[in-house]
Design the sequence.
């Protein structure tokens, strides 16, 4: 579906295990859209924007905040820690940016409560004693979504505006959650009166923004405004389609957009899959191309691969085309944004994982459906020559070293999805767009369209 300006409603989603540079691309593409919508996840996300050397890291607020003409929506599929959201609003306002009339939070989004992060931490501690920790961000995401699905113990953003209901409900659920925490080995006490006062104050602060975003988004679609959906986390962390159980608790692929916003699937016009030029993962779970050696350390150093939310060092490895083909298929990626390409300068050889080999010697080209099967896979690599030159100042694809252009061609031909954007640095300006975009069939172009490869 397209807007008045002809810009299709677009999704920006990560095709790996997160931190692909989604925030940067939302900021870049926000200039072409009217409304930017977060549809899943919570403050487990950490999205970084860099404009003229100035950095802004956001967890809940849509990454289009620096575009003053963009409307910003946090839709129903998210889980919101209201304290973190208020801090983020203050951070944004302290930079002289106004949110008045252009920021909306769904009354249906669920509230992350203090016991959610405590229960998250307690569960992780228990699992870690057995060497099975998920490695969550401990932001209470899993327990908050579990309460949403469980229904009777949840609080939604709209409930923060009804003090009488909030009191009755909190008095019912707080003792049960504290008991549960005790069983989990955490003796924290939470003063229900103080929590009620906190939540009511936060609710009042957020009152101007809390609304029924389902109707609001349908209104915008009817007005032919163009929508940009900002994925949090990533496809391989999707609770249904990722490397379960080492995933987050929401539908973090493009499939989460419809339930997470209340818009029918046909609203979505195109999907841009964001892909790091290599792979990273934070927390536990299988990672076939992980490099636990000097090459992995070099990628981490050059890419500054430390978590935006938790500061944890990210696990690093070569690009995994088996996982990417699957993620591009599940998300219906129409084009790709290749990010952090500059990090790969200076390697003699770059490897691409094209297939997996199972313990029994079988060669797989299809991504397996669960973590235990993936754990048994080893990567089959194709070797690609590296390039010595730094590329972070390159302004067009033709300025990239030939080996770098050929790496991009190789990615595109293995994935069968055209590369539309290339990012060679964190700054908004360090971005190239393939001029022919998706219709490209030009032989002289470094990134020919998929039909040419067919
Ligand atoms: P997100 O969660 O997908 O939004 O990604 P994060 O912001 O967590 O992590 C991506 C990191 O890489 C951030 O620090 C970005 O500023 C940075 N970044 C994005 N694109 C590029 C790039 O092309 N090159 C380099 N060197 N850094 C980038
Ligand atoms: P962005 O949006 C990277 C990972 C955690 C952990 C697992 C479950 O910045 O790309 P959770 O706290 O959600 O229960 O943790 O998911 N994870 C992310 N990793 N980037 C993210 O978001 C992530 N969100 C969750 O590290 O392994
Ligand atoms: Mg991130």
Sequence:
């Amino acid at each position: 579906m397209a807007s008045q300006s002809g810009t299709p409603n677009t999704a920006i989603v990560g095709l790996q295990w997160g931190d692909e540079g989604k925030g940067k691309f939302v900021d870049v593409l926000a200039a072409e859209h009217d409304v930017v919508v977060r549809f899943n996840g919570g403050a487990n996300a950490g999205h970084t924007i860099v404009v003229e050397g100035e950095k802004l890291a956001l967890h809940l607020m849509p990454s289009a905040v620096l575009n003053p003409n963009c409307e910003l929506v946090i839709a129903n599929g998210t889980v919101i820690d209201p304290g973190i959201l208020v801090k983020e609003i203050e951070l944004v306002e302290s930079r002289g940016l106004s949110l008045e009339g252009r920021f909306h939070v769904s009354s249906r989004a669920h509230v992350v409560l203090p016991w959610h992060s405590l229960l998250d931490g307690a569960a992780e501690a228990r699992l870690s004693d057995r060497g099975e920790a998920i490695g969550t961000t401990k932001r209470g995401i899993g327990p908050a979504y579990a309460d949403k699905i469980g229904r009777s113990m949840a609080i939604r953003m709209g409930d923060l505006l009804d003090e009488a209901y909030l009191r009755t409900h909190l008095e019912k659920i707080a003792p049960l959650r504290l008991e549960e925490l005790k069983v989990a080995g955490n003796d924290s006490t939470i003063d229900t009166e103080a929590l009620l006062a906190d939540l009511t104050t936060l609710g009042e602060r957020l009152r101007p923004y809390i609304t029924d975003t389902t109707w609001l988004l349908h209104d915008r679609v009817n007005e032919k405004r163009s929508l940009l959906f900002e994925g949090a986390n990533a496809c391989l962390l999707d609770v249904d389609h990722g490397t379960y159980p080492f995933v987050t608790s929401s539908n973090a692929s493009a499939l989460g957009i419809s339930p997470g916003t209340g818009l029918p699937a046909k609203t979505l016009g195109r999907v841009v899959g964001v892909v790091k030029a290599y792979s990273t993962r934070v927390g536990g779970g299988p990672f076939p191309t992980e490099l636990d050696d000097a090459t992995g350390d070099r990628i981490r150093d050059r890419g500054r691969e430390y978590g935006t939310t938790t500061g944890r060092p990210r696990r690093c490895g070569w690009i995994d085309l088996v996982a990417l083909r699957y993620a591009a298929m599940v998300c219906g990626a129409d084009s790709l944004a290749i990010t952090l390409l500059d990090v790969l300068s200076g390697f003699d050889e770059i490897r691409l994982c094209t297939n997996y080999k199972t313990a029994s010697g079988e060669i797989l080209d299809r991504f397996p459906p669960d973590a235990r099967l993936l754990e048994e896979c080893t990567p089959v690599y194709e070797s690609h020559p590296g390039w010595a030159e730094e590329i972070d100042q390159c302004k067009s694809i033709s300025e990239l070293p030939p080996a770098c252009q050929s790496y991009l061609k190789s990615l595109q031909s293995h994935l069968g999805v055209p590369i539309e954007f290339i990012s060679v640095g964190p700054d908004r300006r360090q971005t190239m767009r393939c001029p022919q975009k998706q219709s490209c069939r030009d032989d002289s172009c470094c990134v020919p369209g998929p039909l040419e490869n067919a």
Summary: The CA atoms of residues 21 and 339 lie 7 Å apart. The chain has two domains: 10-83+214-445, 110-206.
